[in-house]
Design brief:
SH3 type barrels; about 30% strand; Elongation Factor Tu (Ef-tu), domain 3; alpha/beta; Rossmann fold; five-stranded parallel beta sheet
Length: about 375
């Protein structure tokens, strides 16, 4: 084994701590780096970065490695949060974790680590990397994590060959329960720490109040898609996503059956939120989608008319599909069975068995409007 200098992104959570522990046990030169990427309202009212830093420092001390701190708040605001706001303002529902990974964790962090002399970086993501030698030559592949319930390859589909070649995912072959067991047996103080949730690097916030600080509220009508009947008022289209059931504020509607309401479409021009009743309403399903801002891990687009698996949101079961059309700007994906509530702004990610091929941002979903 060739000893390498590896810098681990320590977040304060158990996954990154075990990643660092395993690399050290393998005999490499290891240090930790804590990234501070959010400064607005970073107070004790929420899960603050100070709390995360304390947990990361305690884990680094237990492992016996040094920990440095770097502030990427400017990069996060310019590359991730600004796009996050633009997408919501346009009526789409973005996934900031995708952009956060490609622009901060595997760009700003990787670039910084290289300046410190690192051979590679490592994180606690549940994914795997392998060097594959095929007929087209050698390439780095991104594989699903072994733990299907924790697999995070969906969020990593925008990584490229240069990034993957210098990245390690030491816990990707493990199940979460195994990670916690390793941490507990090693005496890591964060072995039982709760997993982080909420917006990447921002954490949990009262979402509507948080978004309203940056985007003005624009109330409007809620109408039934089938009849054009006005049945309520929404607080602003940015607060709603396709398929949403909770938080619509629609009570009993005269003449309507006692079934739950779901968001079916958003009319950004007229500021109307269209809703339908019933989870299985036809307007909530579609067989096709268009995706843009494409990113392919190998650097080459996949073949058209081959059978792939796709996810249109995290934790969604694989859906059989074909790529019907693809060019440099966009692609069209057709599913073997209708998909429920495919949402513009989310990512469509393609897989071939365990291998994540890449994907793009959903622009249209083929749903009725």
């Amino acid at each position: 084994m060739t000893k390498q200098k590896i810098i681990v992104g320590l977040s304060g959570g158990v996954d990154s701590a075990v990643a660092a522990l395993l690399i050290k046990r393998a005999g490499h030169e290891v240090s930790g780096l804590f990234m501070k990427n959010w400064e607005d309202d970073d107070t004790e009212d929420f899960c603050s970065s100070r709390e995360d830093l304390i947990a990361a420092a305690a884990a680094a001390d237990a492992i016996g490695i040094e920990l440095d701190v770097v502030n990427f708040s400017a990069e996060y605001r310019d590359r991730v949060f600004a796009e996050f706001l633009r997408e919501y303002q346009a009526g789409r529902t973005p996934n900031p974790d995708v952009l956060c990974n490609s622009e901060v964790k595997f760009k700003a962090f990787l670039d910084h680590a290289v300046t410190l002399g690192a051979d590679k970086i490592a994180t606690g993501h549940y994914a795997q990397v392998r060097e594959f030698h095929g007929s087209a030559g050698a390439e780095w592949q991104l594989l699903r994590g072994e733990d299907g319930n924790k697999d995070q390859s969906y969020f990593l589909y925008r990584l490229n060959q240069a990034q993957l070649s210098r990245t390690l995912f030491p816990v990707g072959h493990l199940y979460k329960r195994e990670v916690r067991k390793i941490a507990a047996e090693a005496g890591l103080p964060n072995h039982a720490r709760k997993d982080s949730t909420g917006i990447c690097f921002i954490g949990e916030r009262p979402f509507r109040e948080f978004l309203a600080r940056y985007l003005p509220r624009q109330p409007g009508e809620i109408r039934i898609l089938d009849s054009d009947r006005v049945i309520g008022q929404h607080e602003g289209l940015m607060y709603y996503t396709l398929g949403q059931r909770e938080g619509l504020g629609i009570g009993g509607v005269r003449g309507a059956p006692e079934e739950p309401w779901f968001v079916a479409a958003k009319d950004m021009v007229r500021n109307i939120l269209w809703v339908v009743q019933g989870h299985d309403h036809p307007s909530l399903f579609g067989n096709t989608l268009q995706a843009a801002d494409l990113s392919w891990i190998s650097g080459q687009a996949p073949h058209t008319h081959w059978v792939y698996a796709a996810k249109t949101r995290y934790r969604q079961p694989d859906a059989a599909c074909q790529v019907e059309r693809i060019d440099a700007a966009a692609c069209t994906i057709e599913f073997a069975a209708p998909q429920w509530s495919v949402t513009p702004g989310q990512s469509a990610v393609l897989y071939e068995s365990r291998v994540c091929l890449g994907g793009g941002i959903i622009t249209t979903s083929g749903m009725s409007a």
